[in-house]
Amino acid sequence: MTEVSRIISCTTLGILSFFCFQEGIFLCSGLKVKNNARRTLIFIEFFTGFLLLCDALAYFFRGNTSTLGYYMVRISNFVVFTCNFSISFFVCFYICEFIKQSRLSFSVLLKPKQAIKDGIPVQIFIVLILCLIGILLTFISQFTNFFYYFDENNIYHRSPYFSLSIGLGTLPVLITFTMLLQKKKYFAKNVFISLFVYFVFLFIGAILILINYGISWINISFGIGALHLFYSSIKLLELEFFSGKHKTSVLSPNYKVENFKPEKKIKVIQNHFWQTISISLAGMLLVLIIVSVTGVPLPEKNITIETPYTANDTSKPVCVTFVQNAEKHWVDGDDPDRTGAQYDGIIYNNMKTSVITDWSFSILVPEGCSVDPGPWNGTFTLSDGALNVRKPQEGDAENIHGEDFYRISSLRTLGFGCVMYAPHNYEPLSQKIVFTYSGVIKPLTNIFFKLFMGLLAVLFIISTTITLFEGKLLRVEEENKRLESTVKERTKELEAEKNRSESLLLNILPKEVAKELSLHPGITIAKEYPNVTVLFTDIVGFTKLSGEMSAEEVVTMLNKMFTMFDERAQREGIEKIKTIGDAYMAAAGLVQESENDGAVKMIRFAKGLLDDVHTFNENSNVKLLIRLGINSGPLVAGVIGKTKFIYDIWGDTVNVASRMESTGSPMKIHVTENTRSQTLNIFQYSENTEIDVKGKGMMKTYFL
To answer: Helix axis angle, 511-519 relative to 447-508, nearest 10°?
Structure first.
């Protein structure tokens, strides 16, 4: 890590930490944490603040070998790992509160079975277990160097099992993200986008690590995500600070409860399971790719060789030889006591999966030695009775091929050497050699890692295919269900429209006629009936009365009275034929049987009309009197017209009934001999009178 990267990281992390703490304090203001509806968001802000602060301190004290630096580096890194796992859990808990639409108590975590029955997603318990395992292993790592270790310069290094911490840290995030996607339809669009963006920041951080390793991009993305959650909570959840109107529930969109059939519920659970597996495998593959690119750092190792090798020893992970070239040696012309020679060294990397990234070589030499300028593949110095060689670094004059050239890949070698003058009796094969190296494991060079990664890729393809297939089936079922619901709604609408049409048709036609007209719209309907009782009634003195009233008052009066007549006709089974002005015409006994109770029903109806008129007069300033005429006999009935059709009746029976009304007396029922004979055993009539009926001559009539 360069000094510039260190300064940038410390500054960025410190600023983000300050804002996270500020937001956490702001959310706490005015209400205790225990009763605060935004409690989980407060924990997210504070834990993110501690994460960023400790990460900044770890960078600041990196390489500080003082007592303070020793403890600060270790404590800071421990807190960073712990906070990472804690934040993942609290974010998952925060989203679950949105799903349940209330502030959840942490006590629900103690009763998982009951909590799941109450609708809390099972993912939160999986995330909790993974985070607890991660925190436990982090604690163990303080004593075993399981995840990381520190060298004698108090510099942090990753251990070979560091990738496990990446997996444990990534899985909770992926599971929570999957849960968010699965519950997408339960959130308002703006709330879902707000929570979705939080995870976008984390994914961007993971990508930036690949591009520019050295800056704490993941932790920076945690900080930016926490800022986003805070500001979006103010906008989307409309927090009421300092208003005295703190609510006990999380303000969120209404949770849409859907009643699934048991078989549908099982399919949804299966689809969610495969979604979780698919996304988790994708995350694991991403982690493995990152590990493959960056490698897993190996701790620095020292090899002390008492008896130098003359050839490679493949049983050793690293073997080093350093010999005098048998063909290239001479006597120093300036100093006869010294021999000039080319000394060749070879570093053998016998490790199958590791790359040596840095190395240094030291061999004892006698006094009076010197090295010619221009060594190859190393920077050579003489000090304290030893020839010291190290890998060329940036800025060294010997670094002519670029720093990466001097890295030693697995199962590869690197030669180095120089021209050195030493006493005649100097023999490097009898000298002690110290070789120090550090490197990284490149998993892709291991066949088992390739197989494991290939297996994960196959499982990912299978789970993704199943997820897409089952998701498609569920969407098809939902679409079919939606179409069925639409069809049912449209059917109900059509049924209601049909009922309205039939009701309207029944208002102007008898039931049998309406049915026949519906089945055969173009048919001519006309029937003869042997014994129908017809009633006519009109208002006495209507012409004079209407001249004294406005048109609106006349219509209102007629509508009120005829409405009462219509309601009575419907109750008593009388067929209203029509109204003409102030006249009301009705019929009973419209059946093919000559023996029917139409006359009895009509007399009762007529008596009821008189009661309706009395009721009308009691509630009206206008007092009305009506005449009623009734006759029974054969007639013809039918429908006239094609568009504005009307049901009507014709015949002498109708004409005589009209004559009974016009010759009757106010508020009395005037009937013919035919009607009287059919109702004589039920009703009592007056003595007969005789009237002259046009086309019929003199007829006997009666008053009820």
So the answer is: 130
Distance separating alpha carbons of residues 670 and 331, to the nearest angstrom: 161
b/e string for 9-18 if b means 16 or more Cβ within 10 A?
A: bbebbbebbe
* Structure-token match 């410190």, residue found: 14
Is 129 within 8 Å of 181 (Cβ atoms)? no
For 587, the 3-state DSSP assignment is: strand
Which stretches of 439-550 are DSSP H helices? 447-508, 511-519, 542-547
Cα separations (Å) of 591 from 168, 493, 575, 598?
87, 34, 12, 9
CB 533 within 8 A of CB 587: yes
Phi, psi of 672 (to 5 degrees): -90, 175
Query: Which band of pLDDT confidence, cut at 50, 70 and 90, is reported for residue 253?
Result: very low
Quick one: angle between helices 39-60 and 67-100, nearest 10?
A: 160
Residue with tokens 């003489």: 382
CA distance 157 to 62: 11
Element (H, E) at 302: strand 296-305
If phi > 0 it is left, if psi is from -120 to 50 it is alpha, else beta; for residue 454 that is alpha
- The alpha carbon dihedral of 110, 116, 117, 118 has a sign of positive
Query: How does pLDDT run across 533-549, given as a tens digit for each residue?
Result: 999 999 998 888 888 88
Alpha-carbon distance of 608 to 686, in angstroms, equals 19
CA dihedral 47→53→56→57, nearest 10 degrees, is -120
HEC per residue, 163-192 = HHHHHHHHHHHHHHHHHHHHCHHHCCHHHH
Give whole-number Cα distances, 254 to 195, 275, 341, in Å: 16, 24, 85
pTM for the model stands at: 0.54
Helix/strand/coil for 603: helix
Q: Rounded distance, CA 149 to CA 138, Å?
A: 11
β-pairing verdict for 338-349 and 413-423: antiparallel
Question: Whole-angstrom Cα distance, residue 539 to residue 13?
Answer: 97
Task: Specify the range with the lowest mean pLDDT, choosing from 49-53, 207-211, 389-393, 519-523.
Answer: 519-523
- Report DSSP state, residue 408: B
- Check if the beta carbon of residue 134 is closer than 8 Å to that of residue 81: yes
Backbone angles phi, psi at 698, to 5 degrees: -80, 135
Q: How many CB atoms lie within 10 A of CB 571?
A: 10
**Residue 508 near residue 647 (C-beta atoms within 8 A):** yes
